[in-house]
Design goal:
- Four copies of one chain form a homotetramer.
- By secondary structure, chain A is mainly α.
- Chain A has two domains: 65 residues, Winged helix-like DNA-binding domain superfamily/Winged helix DNA-binding domain (Arc Repressor Mutant, subunit A); 40 residues.
- Chain A is built from five helices and three strands.
- Chain A has a three-stranded antiparallel beta sheet with strand order 1-3-2.
- In chain A, α2 crosses α3.
- Chain A is elongated, with a radius of gyration of 17 Å.
- Chain A starts with 11 loop residues before the first helix and ends in a 5-residue tail after the last helix.
- The interface between A and B is medium-sized, with 32 and 32 residues.
- Chain B binds a DNA duplex through α3.
DNA sequence: GTGGTCTAGACCACA
DNA sequence: GTGGTCTAGACCACA
């Protein structure tokens, strides 16, 4: 469920974060559903528990999960998370558009590429 | 001309690289124009010469500048660089589109945001 | 395993690169085998860690090794590397043949020397 | 007659040396023929006189030219130079053959590439 | 422990 | 003056 790609340039903890975000946002992990404990996930992925711990801490800080002491970690309410995530995406989109326009691409041109993104 | 943002998460040498890429691609630094010497830029930005050296070495490897030993560094011919840079941009665009679609945004929706990117 | 020749005109980091290329290509370092850490090799060779770091960075860029942050550096899959290396060799061979022919040697003559290269 | 390629990775003085070697070995500059003065060549090529001076000094050390004080620099006797130059070439050939064999190429294979070197 | 970035500064090759 | 290489050593991110 949480595939780690050691060829990926991003650090493992970021990959874990990104993966959980998607699972929660897409509803594969339901709101208030329990997610694996730090220890279990660490064993399952053969990863240092510190790394999982760090990912969970970050996910909690960003509001994607919440912790109940003695019980475990749980997914937050999706409804509230989606808008936030979309905002993050749009913010990244803005950076790219800005760079593209700076080197002479037009908004229409970029938009057309977006429509055809699977072939980029 | 080369603003360094110490709050920026990216390392200094990457900021320098990115900045020179834009200056060259946008024609603010003309083809074959001399760019500041390693030492001068280091002093101007209050940065260690090694860090500038590294940025310049990377820019040369990526083809944005060329080095003439004992003379200095010079901007490459823009015509050859633009297509490569646009390719990089489109590659990033693809990643974003993929993430956006995964959380339920449609291509049209994204494209519309692109047209309106200045207000994102 | 990594002999450094201070009389060699080539910079140290290039000698390190060349040596690792051979060890990996010849299978003495196996695919996915861990190579010495930056620090350890630096101590062993009495060389500054930065110099090793630079050699490793270059080897990674050329695809001979890959880095797993916090874990170390590992040899890449040899099968993909050999063709590239052979291409580099043939490119150098071309330069030499060109020079030899220019001073009146024939292809056959050079080819014969190749067959007898151990006695050159 | 002495084209300088600023894209060439080799330093200018080496390019000058290499070029004169070829001109003398191929008989384009005849034995005992006067070659341009340091000053004239420097002006003609828009190069620092120090650089030409260095090239000439090296050419003299290697026996390709000789200096007559107050008169200028002259090409040495070709007959004596050719064997030396061929020796240099064969020495480089040996290095390449050694590297090629180490990664599994056979002498026959290399020899065949030599016969076909123009298409490498 | 491991690699990545950066500073400070030396010395060399080249023009 | 200009870039290239290297040493010495600090501090950080990551596992």
């Amino acid at each position: 469920m949480i595939p780690i790609d050691s060829n990926d340039a991003r650090p493992i903890y970021e990959q874990v974060i990104e993966r959980f975000k998607m699972l929660i946002l897409r509803g594969i992990i339901k709101s208030n559903e329990k997610i694996p404990s730090v220890r279990n996930l660490a064993v399952e992925l053969s990863i240092n528990p510190n790394t999982i711990q760090r990912a969970y801490a970050e996910l909690e800080k960003q509001g994607y999960i919440y912790t109940v002491k003695g019980k475990g970690n749980f997914a937050s309410d999706t409804a509230k998370l989606l808008p936030v995530y979309k905002g993050e995406i749009l913010s990244k989109l803005k950076v790219i558009c800005s760079a593209a326009v700076e080197v002479g691409m037009t908004e229409d041109e970029i938009a057309n590429h977006v429509r055809d993104w699977r072939n980029l």
